[in-house]
Amino acid sequence: MQDIQQILVPVDFHQHTDDLAAFASGIANKLGATITFVHVVGHFAEVAADAGFYPASVTEVEKEMEENAKKKMAALIEQHKAASPGCGGTVIIGEVADIIVRYAMDNKIDMIVMATHGAQGIEKIMLGSVADRVLKRAACPILLFNPYKGERGYQITTPIGDNVQPI
């Protein structure tokens, strides 16, 4: 079984980001791995056009979104550096699933730990699932964290290698 040294944790800075970061830190500590958080800022022009909104300067809006995300990333790293020594983070503009898969490949990531949003029904059909697209395309193992399952109960009490088996 391959050693897990580098873990990629995609974050969206929404409601469950801190839960995901804490969960990933626990996994990383058990494995002796390092975490890299990544946030992908979607292309605003595509989102705006889909909504029928055409701002004066799409470039300026994307730049503001990127700067805001960088501030949030710095705060996330600061908040979790004690629990996850050596963690780092980056902000990238692009299509979310594509960027996560490419970043994992380019940076020799050994595992991705990401959250699901629990989309169901028409929402999932219309919007798709980033987790699903990453799961189908990434070359490394992926651990999905579902923050919507009520009582979390996620605790790793035995070595992860005893519970995770290659397929």
From TrEMBL:
Organism: Desulfobulbus propionicus (strain ATCC 33891 / DSM 2032 / VKM B-1956 / 1pr3)
Annotated UspA domain residues: 5-144
InterPro entries on file: Rossmann-like_a/b/a_fold (IPR014729), Universal_stress_UspA (IPR006015), UspA (IPR006016)
Coiled coil: none
Name of the molecule in the record: UspA domain-containing protein
Transmembrane segments: none
Signal peptide (from-to): none
Gene3D superfamilies reported for this sequence: HUPs (3.40.50.620)
Lineage: Bacteria, Pseudomonadati, Thermodesulfobacteriota, Desulfobulbia, Desulfobulbales
Similarity field: Belongs to the universal stress protein A family.
